[in-house]
Amino acid sequence: MPNIKIFSGSSHQDLSQKIADRLGLELGKVVTKKFSNQET
């Protein structure tokens, strides 16, 4: 398989993990933060 990286936001983390597991890959590391107005 070519070099593929999978990243997930906060909406569908379970789905992203299932896809990564199925492909035999690890999810990429991400850091999300919320602004003072609760936007991500």
From TrEMBL:
Taxon lineage: Eukaryota, Metazoa, Chordata, Craniata, Vertebrata
GO cellular component, one term: ribose phosphate diphosphokinase complex
Homology family: Belongs to the ribose-phosphate pyrophosphokinase family.
Domain Ribose-phosphate pyrophosphokinase N-terminal: 4-40
GO terms assigned for molecular function: ATP binding; magnesium ion binding; ribose phosphate diphosphokinase activity
Alphabetical list of InterPro entries matching this protein: Pribosyltran_N, PRTase-like, Rib-P_diPkinase
GO biological process: 5-phosphoribose 1-diphosphate biosynthetic process; purine nucleotide biosynthetic process
Keywords: Nucleotide biosynthesis
UniProt xrefs under Pfam families: Pribosyltran_N (PF13793)
Protein name: Ribose-phosphate pyrophosphokinase N-terminal domain-containing protein
Gene3D superfamilies the UniProt entry points to: 3.40.50.2020
